[in-house]
Specification:
Helix content is 49%, strand content 15%. The protein is an alpha+beta fold and 149 residues long. Helix 1 crosses helix 2, helix 2 (25-37) crosses helix 4 (60-73) and helix 3 crosses helix 4 (60-73). It is globular and about 50 Å long.
Length: 149
């Protein structure tokens, strides 16, 4: 089993143990590309790599539908400010996404305090949260140490 398939399986079991998600060849291919990329990747970059990998032309709606499925499954996050996608290597819900301005790496971190605060504020405002992800831009540890050198 590939690392991407293991990631998907963990997310599937944690999401709905009685209704596991299906990892089709297309989903597997896209998840492999996103996982291997190690930085946020745009849908059209995925499209180009997937078409080459599959040996046939893949159309944008197919890639977007699959990315939507993988996002709903919790193994991929869409980075709104970059219009790109990144694999999330833990199965817990991610509240914060730290994105490096230099290398483009992204790390997801769950934060129950932020989730609780958002839920409380939303409830006070009469708002039902459907999706939240705080995107934080800066420099990762590696890029900071290279800049200091």
């Amino acid at each position: 089993m590939t690392p991407a398939a293991r990631l998907f399986t963990k997310a599937s079991v944690s999401r709905a143990p009685d209704r596991p998600l299906r990892l089709t060849p297309l989903r597997s291919g896209i998840l492999e590309i996103v996982t291997r990329h190690r930085r946020p990747i745009r849908a059209y970059e995925i499209l180009e790599q997937l078409s080459g990998h599959m040996g046939k032309r893949v159309f944008p709606p197919t890639v977007y539908r699959t990315l939507d499925y993988l996002t709903r499954s919790g193994v991929v996050k869409r980075i709104e400010c970059l219009n790109a996608y990144v694999a999330i290597l833990q199965t817990a819900d991610t509240s914060l996404l730290f994105i490096c301005n230099a290398c483009g790496s992204a790390v997801g971190v769950p934060d129950p305090d932020i989730d609780g605060s958002l839920a409380k504020d939303a409830d006070a405002a009469g708002f039902a949260i459907e999706h939240s992800l705080l995107e934080v831009r800066g420099l990762c540890r590696n890029c900071r140490s290279q800049a200091d050198s």
